[in-house]
Amino acid sequence: MNFFEYQERARRNSGMLVGLLSLAVVLLIGITTMAAAALVAYSRGEPFSPMQIGSLLGWDSVAAIAVGISAVILLGSVYKLRQMSAGGRAVAEALGGRKINISPHNDAEKRALNVVEEMAIASGTPVPEVYVLDDDAINAFAAGHDIHDAVIGLTRGSIERLSRDELQGVVAHEFSHIFNGDMRLNLRLVGLLHGILVIGLLGYWLLRGTYIGSSRDNRGRAAFAGIGAGLMVIGYTGTFFGNLVKSAVSRQREFLADASAVQFTRSNAGIAGALKKIGGYSEGSNLSAGQAAEFSHMYFASGLRRSFTNLFATHPPLPARILRLEPNWNGHFPQAAATKAAFGDARVAGFAGASPSSTAINLDGLSASLDNSIGNPGQDHIELGQHLLDSIPTELRSAAHDPFAARAIVYLLLCHRDAAEREQQQALLEKIAHPGVFREVQKLSSHVRFLPACARLPLLDLCIPALRELAPQQYQVFKRNLIKLLRSDRQVDLWEWALYRVLVHGIEGTPDGHRMSQRRDAQRDAARFLLAALAHAGHRDYLAANRAYGAGLEAMQRDKTPLPLASDITLPRLDKAIAIARALPPLEKPGLLKSLAACIAHDGILEAEEIELLRAVADSLDCPMPPLAVELVSKETLQKDTKAPV
């Protein structure tokens, strides 16, 4: 099963989850109605029969009970889901997490941030925000609505007591939850279960109010106490069954995430070692945060102490997980002593499996890479991600973590490659950018100009967490300046547009609502338009671009149509096309990506910029595309790239 199939399954599972919890709501309505009818029958001294509910209560009362309970659950769920609208950040902050992307406090935090950044670049996902929970337990979580608002949370115990390989295994496990579509399902579980729990909380408040209120009306107090007790029973009964659903869904996904982590890192020792240390550590994986139970199904290992029953266990037992990873395990749990963390320890230097300098490629191989690597990276991608980070100068990596300097980096990435055009754009920046940001532009200009082409997209990804810290007014000014910069030369450079879209999508998430369209003809037109844009991007000659366009249409199995003129490729139309294409069903996106790949590879030659452009478009389509094997070049080629401006 590949990334797109997992995404489709996640959509189906979300519908199944809503169906199961809707059934729970119906059962709650039935229980409440029967309880109310039994109470009425008892007050009249009559025997109770379920067949007499209508005559005992009246159908108007039955309807009122159903509407009332449904309204309470709906409002409670909407309220909680609105609280969770910030995505993973809301979960991390609810658990007391502290963001470290901008200012890690020590070497352990730097190492943890480094591991997450490597994983993100290796998998083609935006660099997530990383939070540290001040807890001695060894645990972690991934939370968010999608890959663009994902958060990785790590406890202090995990970053201080796990080796780099073990920490890498834990982070790979959490990234697999991002790829498999588990995060959105997890947040929906939190919201829906909270709606059912609200009924029990209302009962608790009513029952509590009868003991602290006035004692003048004992009959009224008794009535409120009875209603409160009844609501508590109903609410917590619903929560009981809801937690059963949550636990059953969560346990199987943990086995899948463990297997995906092994596939990602090509090693079972790291993640198995982390699980063993949890078993041998006095603090285990039990979190002390007040809201730990609410998010128990999101953690790497159980965040709560086990009760006498495993019915509500959100994770399989540690021995069962370890034995799946190491069948010959002897059952011994080692002690989890503090591990000395050095920034960048055990790094892999250089390209993994560097290929000859020839850029000739095979389209079948490229298509297979798209099928097998999107949302499914391997150790070779991790090694390449490590090298790409190493190829970014230290000055740029430091600046990317600062909200002020990160703006300067993005301005420079969007500047034209032609020297004369670049000078005009920098003159424009001097007028429109913040003076301090422009000073950063001048200081970092040479570093960005000589950056290898394959490192530009990773550098942009490093900037996104810092840019999310901008105040809304600052971000709007920054965004307007970017648009002015794009339009300054009165022509569309597709690479510059793709960088802009990756940035905006990474910060803002979903596209504007008015750009969305589910019509099949609109989606077909959007796909054709993106093909035309890539064809013109790779060829100045119309005939050559038309051949590339035809290759893409053939791969898409569409009839040949005239290639739009280069003058028709405008920024608004590109934005609209990418927004429509993003709404394609998951299983239809591979076909679009393969047709785009066929377009840029039709002549058998693939430039580094072309593959990075394909990756940028894939990112905008919510398809995390890692660096591909065809991007690997020799060290001599890399050295040549670093001596010439991009």
UniProtKB/TrEMBL annotation:
Does Metal-binding show up as a keyword for this record?
yes
Q: Which GO terms describe its biological process?
A: proteolysis
Q: Gene3D superfamilies annotated for this entry? A: Metalloproteases ('zincins'), catalytic domain
Required co-factor?
Answer: Zn(2+)
- The chain positions of domain Peptidase M48 read 114-326
Task: List residues traversing the bilayer.
Answer: 20-42, 62-79, 185-207, 222-245
Pfam families in alphabetical order: Peptidase_M48 (PF01435)
Q: Tell me which domain of life the UniProt entry assigns to the organism this sequence originates from.
A: Bacteria
What are the recorded GO MF terms, alphabetically? metal ion binding; metalloendopeptidase activity
What keywords sit in the KW lines?
Cell membrane, Hydrolase, Membrane, Metal-binding, Metalloprotease, Protease, Transmembrane, Transmembrane helix, Zinc
Q: What is this protein called?
A: Peptidase M48 domain-containing protein
Species name for this entry?
Microbulbifer aggregans
